[in-house]
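Q: For a teaching session next week I want to show students how multiple molecules come together into a single three-dimensional assembly. I've collected the sequence lines for a complex. Could you give me the predicted structure tokens for the whole thing so I can convert them for display?
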Amino acid sequence: MVKVNKQPEANIFCDFLHLIEEEAARFPVELITIAEETGGGPQALLVMDCTLSAKRKGELTKALCTEASPATERERHSALPDRTAALPGAEFFKDLVQAELARVKKSRLPCSLLLIRIDGNGEDRGFFNKAAAALEMAMEGDHHLAHLDHTTLALLLPGQNRNRALRQAGAIQQLLTAEITARVKIGLAVCLARAVPAAEEFMEMAFTELQKAEHEAGDIFYSFPSQDEDSCQVTAEERAQLFSFLNKGNKE
Amino acid sequence: MENKQKPQIISISSGKGGVGKTSFTINLAAALSTKSRKVLLIDGDLGLANVDVMLGLNVKHTLQETVEEGRDPLDILVEIMPGFFVLPASSGVPEMANLSHEEQAFLIDSLEHIIGNFDFVLVDTAAGVGESVLWFNNWAGKNITILSPDPTAMTDAYALIKIMNTRYNKKDFHLIINNVKSKKEAHEVFVNMSTVLENFLGVKPCYQGAIPQDSAVSMAVRKQKPFIIGQPKARASLAVMEICNKILS
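A: Of course. Below is the structure for the complete assembly, covering every listed component.
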């Protein structure tokens, strides 16, 4: 892992990062740019081996951000209601989503995003952290869990399609309802390689579904690219034409 | 070995199993090597490999070790004859048939490091339209699809092409019609398939050739030896040589 964390002449540094990004595109690595909260230029670039497990990547990025960033930056990336939860915050999660969407384009595998609203005991942080900890304990396989606001967790599931993510959402709802007796609403968005949205748009899609879950009957709502556009099912018309040659042979 | 050049990567798929992918791929690799080309055959059926069986190999190492232990693929290579090398895969290992995207990326990266030593890289993919079939086809610069003149093989070949075209934006497909009674039959199958592909997907496939029904093929499978080596004058051997020449031209 290479870490760059420097802030001399902003333009020179940006150019330098750009060169690294271009060079890195030739290798199986994942880049995460860490920018200033105020919208200024990038401050650091994490270059990670993309063959590392998602769990390990999460550990490394968390450790690096905590260690290398100034206090304000650390606050922004962590944005934790309670340090014991040890979850990344919204800004950092957006970077993760961005990196994952780039990987969807490259690997052609889908990814799913779950926004989980836990409505239990007002803004009781201990209660919320208990839910986050229970969820983190129960999760298996590649995932990134983050804290979005006082009542919402975000869960990114690399490689998971709609059905898997829906099953996962159902299991999460059961778990949290049983463990902390909370009302759990989930909004789910699925990204497919043929139509990768921007990170903000993807998160917005999940958020829209979460709002539906809150205001309409049902606890889990999802958004999925149109079936018709994505389907590769061989249609009856295609089959008929494929077999016309055989039928012609039979008649002869 | 050092990475020297960019080889032509060719995937050989069919959708349906039992159409003759592995047999054809082995013979094509042997044919290319007889033309002084250096060929790497990758057994892309990562969990249910057959290339080693068809060549009578007793392999010690497989691509499973590359994925799981990071073993250099060069240590796994088996030389079949001058210029013809095989990267064997494992058999009966379901985990290998369902690699995670990190493992896929790692495997492709490992392969990229060694393929520069070859003129041709042939990937004999698994049957079906599983992830490995799709990403090997996506990786390859040239996609050969084998089909035979029966409805299931035609439907599955069409489905595979449709997926590669729809989801991966692949446009160039090369068809080989296997196990045909005559050239006329091969031509009819190709024209029919070509018409459907063009009508529904806007894809114009290339005719790569046809392989006739020939007892030499099944005999070669039993003898675990390429038929173009064991019976070079057989009709199937001549057909494969013709396809080989077409690829070289």
